[in-house]
Amino acid sequence: MSTENNNLYDNINVGDLPKSTPGWKIVVQEILADKLALFSLIIFTLITCYVFGLTLFLSLRDIVTVDLFAINVAPNDEWRLGTDYGGRDIFGQLIIGTRNSLAIGILVTLLSVGFGIVYGVICGYFGGHIDNAMMRFVDFMIILPFLMIVVVFVTIVPSYDIFTFSLMMAVFLWMGTARLIRSLALQERELDYINASRTMGSSHFKIIFTQLLPNLVGIIIVNGTLSLAANIGIEAGLSFIGFGFPEDYPSLGTLMAYAQNTQTLQHRPWVWMPAAILILILMLCVRNVGEALRRAGDARQRQG
Amino acid sequence: MSNNILEIKDLKVHYPVRGGFFNTIKDYVKAVDGVSINVPVGTTYGLVGESGSGKTTTGKAVMGLNHVTEGTIMFNGHELTGKGKKVDNHKDIQMIFQDPYSSLNVRKRVFDIITEPLNNYESLTKAERVNRVLELLKIVGLPPSAIYKYPHEFSGGQRQRIGVARAIALRPKLIIADEPVSALDVSVQAQVLNFMQEIQKEMDLTMLFIAHDLGVVRHMCSYLGIMYRGRLVEEGTVDDIFNNPQHLYTKRLVAAIPDIDVDHVEKNLVLRNQLKEEYEQNFADYLDEEGRAFPLQQISDTHRVALPVRS
């Protein structure tokens, strides 16, 4: 090394060394660059904040109490979105229902995707007999009739709350993620950087969670957001056919269920229409943000 | 011999071929089938052969990345193979990988990549680690500004240097270089090779150099082993192999090295064609019934050849 070159390495202030753009900054840039995603994120945040904020001041008991003097009132000054056949305030139900649906959607996604990732990554990384045995269990779970078991659960369990209901749903919804992550992990573990980590004495646990998993983040985010949209839909569907939450525990699905009555469907759109529109908006927003996040994770597709 | 840092004895790596209705073992692919190598301390041993001849498998078996069907691998007097006997050899044996694109995790910064082995074996403070990484970057000739960059911001040659920096971070005694330059273009090859030789001298490293490029091997190694279908066909010093090849396979391999001697182009061509004919006619005599090389026979102190056994 020449002396000139040596000077380059001496007197270095480590803080001055250039750093690559940190991950969160890339995400922010990406969302700012995609106007649709930015718009979606703002809408989603506003709805979420509004809903969660307002539920602090609303009383579930007041809202679900039957009021026979105000049955099927069209929207007016007193009832902003009218009332249902029990004289219950639709606006209040919508707010609390949205909160419940969002909470379930997020909780189910966290539980199912979280478990699916860990399960799939272990299958894919170790491969061989472990993979074989673990994937047969996944096959077994997939053939179980989801709907039937939910119906039985709802019928025999006397009372359930958001957490137990989410847990029950998550038990049947983690297999897709597990399969997806396993297939990617199988691919990834053949790459030399995994071998390199092994030769450097890193434990399997460390390799899986610090080397392999960061390379799957893009897929995990896409899978997570798509699952979130789907899970909100599944909960709404279950409630719609009457096997989700009961009427006195509103969710977007229970509001939609009022549309099963042809009279309501035809002549009283204020009962179910707001819930239907809200589901649509929420799902589209989540999807748009998910798309932007996916691009942020893949340097080749970035717009920002 | 006690000055051998690595002694491989009769190494066999077989992979089962499964098939049929019950998925039973039908046959074995004998990737490595009885290879014995001794590598003296401080030297570079070149392992050469065509693709599929088992060079990389041998290297990976030493690293513990492959299972070993039979045979022993001794490192510094410790056995690396065998059941229940786990010697953590990763501190003293490191590997440089063939493909500089897949061997670096694209999600990690250079700092994280190089400190991975340090975190596993040494407890250093953040400042100490930064200093060590800067020191290593200096050795491999990368600027200090590289420390917080991601691998995709570097060229192939620079990436291979990051791989080398990672491999020498723990000051290993033995480095297994698995075709370290075959993915690089020729101008960068020379750079990487020269500086690998430099570090070898500086750090008193022993290297097992796996390659298929004879020119590169001649430049780097003091001992050579030529592999063919999972066995060694010839082994000796570089001088033995290049100036006195005995096995027909080696002869043809050496004759195939491009020559820049313009005056003798015609003559070389004739020689090469003669060898080609001889190879096509007689090569079967140099192999046993299974198409594999015969056991090695000592023909001088350093030179061993798998000449056919006349029975």
From TrEMBL, chain A:
The keyword Transport applies. Its main location: membrane. Keywords: Cell membrane, Ion transport, Membrane, Nickel, Nickel transport, Transmembrane, Transmembrane helix, Transport. It is a multi-pass membrane protein. Pfam families: BPD_transp_1. The chain crosses the membrane at residues 36-58, 102-125, 137-156, 162-181, 212-234, 270-290. Residues 98-290 form the ABC transmembrane type-1 domain. InterPro entries: BP-dependent_transpt_permease (IPR050366), MetI-like (IPR000515), MetI-like_sf (IPR035906). It is found in: Cell membrane. GO terms for cellular component: plasma membrane. GO terms for biological process: nickel cation transport; transmembrane transport. Belongs to the binding-protein-dependent transport system permease family. This is Peptide/nickel transport system permease protein. It comes from Aliicoccus persicus. The lineage of its organism: Bacteria, Bacillati, Bacillota, Bacilli, Bacillales.
From TrEMBL, chain B:
GO terms for molecular function: ATP binding; ATP hydrolysis activity. Residues 6-254 form the ABC transporter domain. The keyword Cell inner membrane does not apply. Pfam families: ABC_tran (PF00005), oligo_HPY (PF08352). SUPFAM superfamilies: P-loop containing nucleoside triphosphate hydrolases (SSF52540). It comes from the Bacteria. InterPro entries: AAA+_ATPase (IPR003593), ABC_transp_ATP-bind (IPR050319), ABC_transporter-like_ATP-bd (IPR003439), ABC_transporter-like_CS (IPR017871), Oligopep_ABC_C (IPR013563), P-loop_NTPase (IPR027417). Keywords: ATP-binding, Nucleotide-binding, Transport. SMART domains: AAA. PROSITE patterns: ABC_TRANSPORTER_1, ABC_TRANSPORTER_2. One of its GO terms (biological process) is peptide transport. Belongs to the ABC transporter superfamily. This is Peptide/nickel transport system ATP-binding protein. It comes from Aliicoccus persicus.
